[in-house]
Amino acid sequence: MLNTSVSSIQNGVTSGFGDVQTALCGGFAGVTASVNNAQSGITQQMYSNQIAELERSFAAQTANTAGLSNISSQLSQCCCDNRLATCQTQNLVASDGALTRQAIQEQTQAILDKMCQQEIDAYKRENDNLRSMVNMQNLAASQAAQTAAIIADNTSQTQYIVNRVAPYPIPSYTVPNPLGTV
Description:
Blueprint: H1 2-67, H2 73-165
Helix pairs in contact: 1-2
């Protein structure tokens, strides 16, 4: 009965920790997904804005180029050089922004992974401590039962030896004390 009770307590504790771990990891996964979705949305909006700006810039530059096609080749070359520098700068800004976002995502994920691992380690330690306590209780109960069995057996053997070595008379009926004292 004691083993059944301990086993049911142990199963309850183990199930409780498993449920907590599952809920905890599920919660962290939800937070991570929300952060990733938000970052993805921001990134997509920034890319859309940059593309629209590049398209407006390109359209304006194309119109200016068509309007100024009769300007000398030196001015045309200067304009092309400026446009190339602008595109290179925009490209640098976009790639730096992407690298920054990626670094932020990686660091956030590393922090979340570390927190989840710390929680899991704490639950493992607590679970190991509880298992150790249950094992010690089982050992103590087993030891007490063995000790009781040994004492009972020793008492039985001692009584047998006493009865065999020095038998004493056993009255056939109880006689009251003639002095009236107990």
